[in-house]
Amino acid sequence: MTEEKKFRVALGQFFVKETSEENQAITRDLIERAEKNGADLLVLPEGIIARKPGDHDWPRLHSEPLDGPFVTALRAATKEKHVTVVCTVQAKIPGEARYANDLLVVRDGELKLVYQKLHLYDAFSAKESDNAVPGNEVPALVEVGPFRCGFITCYDVRFPELTRALALAGADLLVVSAAWVKGPLKEMHWDLSLRARALENTCFVAGVSECGPVNIGSSKLVDPFGVVVAQCGTTDELLFADIDPARVEKCRKALPVLENRRFAAPKLREPGEL
Questions:
Q1: Is 46 part of the annotated catalytic residue set?
Q2: pTM
Q3: CA triplet 271, 73, 268: central angle to 5 degrees?
Q4: Catalytic-labelled residue, pool 81, 87, 128, 154
Q5: Sequential DSSP letters for 142-174
Q6: What are the DSSP E strand ranges found in the chain?
Q7: Do 141 and 160 meet the contact criterion of CB atoms below 8 Å apart?
């Protein structure tokens, strides 16, 4: 009897460049390498159209509509490929000076999900809401292979009610696209937040942060018991790890926190709604 193929996650950590064209080339290369190495899911950082260290207006000034050059190139790069790609982009909003921080799930050239970040990073002296408009809806789940995936963006990971809602809706793999800013204790906060969201929801968690002079990198994959099973360093890296959905079942049998809970959770959007 042949062993059942496990699910392969690719953590695609990189330093986002100043132009859309440079970042298109980087994402195409990561998609090709992920596909070649048998990845089922490729997770990329937050805000990957364009960034410039120290210039907080840069992402807004270089935002594009979802039918613009960057997302069009991203969709084309996934066409006729197996791998599902997750990232976030700065999307123009018609008639609005600020952009939407949109998480995208892309497979075979199609947008399977567009999720507008709920919790904007107005903390630690930063004010993301100066340049971005918050969303108002918990995203639908997307099936990727044997997993039902829930998606959040960066600062969202500090709000456990959101991931609990996703887990109660059936998520067994939580995906975090981030640009986690460096600072005192911030690496610890990233690690604790990802591990806590995994353990309290008995889910796998795949979190990818931009690296470089501003953000920490340290992308990682956490199992349902809160154990880090794969982790990147602080420079550009494409890291692969295989996970088994049976691990979720085993954990939930031993630690049935979702069954034992006493509180309700917010309602998700209907599956398939963008």
A1: yes
A2: 0.95
A3: 15
A4: 154
A5: EEETTEEEEEEEGGGGG-HHHHHHHHHTT-SEE
A6: 7-13, 41-43, 84-92, 99-107, 110-116, 132-133, 142-144, 147-153, 173-178, 204-209, 220-222, 228-231, 237-243
A7: no
Per-residue pLDDT in tens (0 to 9) along the chain, 274 residues = 344 568 999 999 999 999 999 999 999 999 999 999 999 999 999 999 999 999 999 999 999 999 999 999 999 999 999 999 999 999 999 999 999 999 999 999 999 999 999 999 999 999 999 999 999 999 999 999 999 999 999 999 999 999 999 999 999 999 999 999 999 999 999 999 999 999 999 999 999 999 999 999 999 999 999 999 999 999 999 999 999 999 999 999 999 999 999 887 666 666 555 5
**Catalytic position from the list 17, 81, 92, 117:** 117
Phi, psi of 140 (to 5 degrees): -70, 160
Q: CA-to-CA distance for 47 and 88, rounded, in angstroms?
A: 5
112 catalytic residue (yes or no):
no
Q: How many CA within 13 A on the CB side of residue 122? A: 10
CA dihedral 233, 237, 243, 247 (to 10 degrees): 20
- With contact defined as beta carbons under 8 Å apart, do 200 and 257 qualify? yes
Q: What angle do CA 242, 101, 126 make, to 5 degrees?
A: 105
Of residues 46, 64, 128, 210, which has the active-site annotation? 46
* DSSP 3-state of 131: coil
Contact at 8 Å (CB) between 29 and 238?
no
Q: DSSP secondary-structure letter at 181? A: B
228-231/220-222 β-pairing: antiparallel
Helix (H) or strand (E) holding 257: helix 257-260
What is the full DSSP assignment across 6-23? PEEEEEEE----SSHHHH
